[in-house]
Design brief:
membrane, mainly alpha, three-stranded antiparallel β-sheet, transmembrane helix, cell membrane, Threonine/homoserine efflux transporter RhtA
Amino acid sequence: MRLGFPRCTGTVLMLPKHENRPFAYNLVCSSSSVLFTIPYNGAKGGIVLVIIGYLFMCLIFSTTFLAIKIGIDAGVPPFLSAGLRFFIAGLILFAMMVIKRRATLGLFFRKEMLLSGIGLTFGTFATLYWAEQFVPSGTAAVLSATGPMMILLIQTFILKMKADSSSFIGCLVGIVGVFLLLLPSFTFHMDTFVLVGCLLIIVGEVFYASGTIYSKRVINQFDQVSPIALNAAQMMHGGILLMLLSFVTEDIHWGAMVSPAAIGSYLYLIVFGSMLGHSLYYWLVSKTNPVFPSTWLFVSPILAMLLGVVFYHEALSWVSGIGALTIILGTIIISLPNLKSYLKGPIKQGNHPA
């Protein structure tokens, strides 16, 4: 494998190389001046890309909770911070797709993009950003682990779909781990705003679950469009709605917007948290199912809590340690059906030219 580039500090996206060449993939990296590809060939390569993409996504999302907290602590209004993040990231990605003729401007105006944006971006991150004014970043990360459970509940009781028994058991095991991980953080004298923030994060996970399930239908409907373009369009819609909410409800102090902490938070969340992390997430949904990529919510809280220990000197008790191990066990149980399907046959090849 030969890399013909001096450096790369931009976005890494994993896309199918061509729909008529199975198991051939590109690792695409874009910066302001570089665009290169690393070809992967062979049946095993597709499985490896899914695993690498999943682990990389987990690592990125474990740091975004702390990055959000840093930006908010710097004085940036939460809704405006979220809106700028997703609109700018979506605009850059969508422009790339249009320039490369992988999408058309008309895609942005489809109602499916608006509905996806309401679920995956607006509802999920409006609640999360507001809550992180009061809720520690590690706690927010742990509460986000209720997402897969919400997906299964919606699929089972609203959509009347038969849930895979191992996925359901894995979710239950993971939720038990979440409560064990979170238990030492709660006291009887919890601040009201902290409690409201925790409840709002769970409400946001209902939006997240609904958007995740709906996004699978959108990918199937627009099967000739790259999932990266679909993700970019929905991020732009969600970002616009968040900025509108900010202009109506928040008092904006523009001086705080240009502080080093705020700028650093923007750049990290836009490039890694949104452009890279969410594109990987959307790609994994298209290749597996809504549950498998959502299991990052059982892995990333562990890393997020460790970041809190290292940078904020938060205590980590033995109860939390048991909870972390339980979460990992739940993740393994949930992932088994998908991993078995990859080992039995080739990775699912979508019609997403890139």
